[in-house]
Amino acid sequence: MTDQVETLLAEAARLPYGEARTVLAERALREAEALREPEPAIAARLALTQAYQYGGEPAKSFATFSRTVAAYDAEPGRFTEWQARRVLWQFKWIMNDMRRFPEIPLRRALDALDDMERRYREAGAPQAVYAQRCRVALHLGDEPGVEEWLHRWETAPRDDLSDCRACDLGGRAYVLASLGRYEEAVAVGGPVVSGTFTCGVQPQSILCTLLTPYLKTGHLDEAAEAHRRAYRIVQGQIGYLDDIGDHLEFCALTGNETRGLEILERELPLLERPPSPAQARSFMTGAALVLRRLMETGHDGLTVRRAGRDVPVPELHAELAAGAREIAARFDVRNGDDVHTRRVAATLAAEPLVAHLPLLPNVRRGEPDGRIDPADTDSRTAIRALFEMGEHDAGQAALREAGDPAAAMEAAKELADLDLDVEAVQAYAVAADLYRNAGELLAAGCAMRLRAKCVYFASDDLAEISEAYAQARAALTAASEAGEPGTGQPDTGQWREAVWELAGLGYDEAVALEWAKRYEAAAERCQEALDAYLALDDQIGAVRARELLEGLREETEQED
Hints:
By secondary structure, the protein is mostly helical. The chain has helices at about 5-15, 20-35, 40-55, 60-75, 80-100, 105-120, 125-140, 145-155, 165-180, 180-195, 205-210, 210-215, 220-235, 240-255, 255-265, 275-295, 315-335, 340-350, 380-390, 390-400, 405-415, 420-435, 440-460, 460-480, 490-515, 520-535, 540-560, and strands at about 305, 310.
């Protein structure tokens, strides 16, 4: 592989999935094809297929994958062992996508599945094929076939082409839920929900799958938590458009139409460029159900902002319901049955399973964002739930209303422990303000230091990260310079603690600058931290800072 192609692919791999990563992978493929050498093009096509899949453009992956398979069949010796295995792995993605596009003839999809099975059996790895055949049977409404292939899927030994354990369990839970075997679905999904097994798309996908099973089996608290946890992860993600539709359906089925309307308005722009017709149908169906419930509960006078226009709820309901039915009909024409039309009709006509399921602890009916009782022992849980649901303004308002900076700090820590870094940034900011208003400058500075660290975890913008560290440094410096009450002399104990916090801040900022490849600036901050640790006789801190500093100096020398 040439250096240019390799560099482009490495640069693309460092980016999140989306347009920027896809553009780099496409450029790498153009560069590779210009070389007229097979090996660089193989690597580029594999990478581009993956970028299309996870970047919300699966239709484009059909062409790149087909060319990869053709190249493999023509000259398998050109592929490394890993690349050959990757071709087989990507077969699963393509089979999933063939079910999502009614334009693809059913016979072609079934032939592709036969081809996949032949290749997987030659590789000694049939389990994933059973999973695919089970999904096809479910797509076609063939319940006996679903039962048969599900049994084979569950009983076949795992192999190196099986889905990861989290996704394998997630897939089985989805099938069980679709069959109405809700208790079994909840049981199968348990190890993923608990975190025993996880991956890049779990637990958010299985939590979405279990929304209805939780409701059907009376696990109402688990249903509310699943909605909060999963929606926070998939919010705004084009690749999860169908899952977002399921969350809309959940809101309609639990008396949370107002919450559903908020999600609909936030996510509606994604429908302008859906990854596939199947995902668009899911979103439209869930959205139409929310709008129907709003109309039935006396809110038909509301409007929804779409493409610069305020659309009346009844008008948007009619448009989205018709769109969902139209897509379902296209699938039925393709498949030669009425399975999808009946499924969409059933969802559009669904009645609530729960009159009203509070999505937050201690929330009064009629107050969808909730008012938190500051004296309530569960207030922190409720506040955290607000942040998990994406209600950041309400979460911050609740923290300020409670007026307890220690509680705000604890809430922020809990959010950070859950990797809710954006939310933790906001909670730490509230804590800092409350401490500052109470005259506790050191505590305010500590909150700002922790806030800066969360900004680093949450952001890829070096300017934003640097500003957060600068604000924290200013707050801690002010605390170190504060005088003892009535004397004007520095508080020795507070000074030492502030200096220790500044040392930790310098070390943290050095790590952030190292990530940004600003090695010289990172070394300066690390030296400040080392000097402070030595002044405080903190040998453990000094050793840690010295090790980082040595590494930074080596990086600086290599740059020179």
